[in-house]
Amino acid sequence: MNHPLLDQFNQWLQQFEQTGSVIDTTRLNEWNHLMDQFQTHPEQLSSNHAQWIKTLAQNSKAMMSVVEALQDQATDSSEQLKKLREELHQFNVQLLLQQASLPQQMAPLLFTHTHLSTLFNEEQLAKFEQLKSSLNTPQFEKLNQLIESFMQWQQAGQTLTEEMNQITELATQTWQEQFDDSLSAKDQIELWGKIYDNTYQVQFQEPSMQLAQSGWLNGWADLKLAWKQLLTQLTEQAGLPSPEQLDRMIEQLDQQRRRIRQLEKRLSALESGDHNG
Amino acid sequence: MANRYNQALLDSQKELAKAMAVLSELPPLEDSSLKAEVVLTLDKMRLLHFKQSGRRRQPPLIICYALVNRPTILDLAPDRSLVQDLRAKGRDIYLIDWGYPDLCDRHIGLDDYIGDYLDSVVQCVIERSGFEQIDLMGICQGGVFSLAYASLKPERVRKLVTLVTPVDTDVEGFTLSEMVRETNIEQLVKSYGNLPGQFLNQIYAALKPLQLGVVKEMGLSRSIQDPTSAELFLRMEQWINDSPDLAGRATIEFAETFFKGNGLIQGSFYVDSKAVKLTSIRSPILNIFGTKDHLVPPASSQALQTAITPNTPYQELALPAGHIGAFISDRCRSQVIDAIETHLSQK
Q: Which residues of B touch A6 (CB under 8 A)?
């Protein structure tokens, strides 16, 4: 089957190879354009696996930006290492935040996005403190609790990021010690992955890491519950079914399910008794 | 240094082009998994029957999978199916599919899963087959359920197989257990209702954050270099992302009693108010685990040997594989099948 986009990509590859695999701005722009096309119209290549085409193009672009960033510092190994650490710090933060995106409705209330790009700094925390103290009347109690939970979750995130940055630091040291220039880029990446994950596992034996991870998860649960309570207050005020009413209804349904199950079991016992008799 | 980058770049782009080409020609994945007769339904649970291929007269084998992820992994593709391989050996197979719990199932607990559903499954299979005892195989958390059942109803279980099953949660290097230890699972479940499957997936990925994250993502193209490997890879990914939510109450109970309380070892795991005592198990046990399992450390599985009575026949099969590879990889599957077959066939 003919795939013009794939043909263009193959042509680009051929030219890239012919010119001694040197990537200049023009070639990079062409490549970026091709990847954008794959991301925007993946179905041109495969309607069955469009999502995978998109993911591959996305990953490749992300990878290229890291390579570019590292290559900028290619002449100085300490600068390169510094850059790598920064990238890893960002990775840690992203990893954490990916695990918890705020419910859409909560986001505007907390003046932030559903996917945060960074954790809080002191200045932002101070702003939230200020906001909280300006809402100290009983009617804002639930909202205040939500803000308080949000701040605590953010602080827990800081603690966990610090722990994870320590892991990065230790793993980077080990990597430097084991660095083998003769390894291919692929093997280097795999080696790095193994070293990092081993360090991570060892660090997880430390109570400080366990507490940091759990503190962050617990903070997240508190935040979600505070949000639920605020929603309950708002929906009840508006005369709408609230999350707590829904919870009670589910509980009643469960009780009924259990009663039916008991009856089924009794019936079955009676039936088998009849047969035996 | 710049040349190294460029060469790596060229290699990765060649792989990318190849992966794109393979995907462009790959047909949609056919859903061939778990095609079997449904012989029992209780709430969301279904019991699937894979009829035996021969006429061998032997007790049926019930497979109890974990609540986490789907049992489709046991029947991933026609040529990669633990269920079909066992069936080909003449085994009569029943597989428990726990289904997808929704919010109405949030109050379902371990008493329901083990004391009611699993017990009803065993009763149903006994009635259908005419045998007084069945063989039971539990995988991962399903292994914990199977051990609990075999200790509470030893007269019903002829042979027991545990696959990648955690037993002792206090062993060194059990990261998942360490993660749970200080976490307020009750509060987490209260906030969600049921524990979302996607959330769990992220927790699992966080056990090996780089190798299951960036390194895997960067190597995606490499997994899609020919139609056969691409299809397998896509099926595996489909399975990984097909994660049911966990019923709230069962999650709390499992975290509190099994993980935090190390319930199977401490004797503090209860089903229907009866303590699960591993020393009550009478069925001969085959315990299979992966020596490279990052989810369930081998030491956790191996603790079973000392937790049962010395009179209970016990064998181990240690495979050089991870949690899933231990029963899915080409390298290990035939070993697993042979070991199970031998164990079940022994008088």
A: 17, 20-21, 24
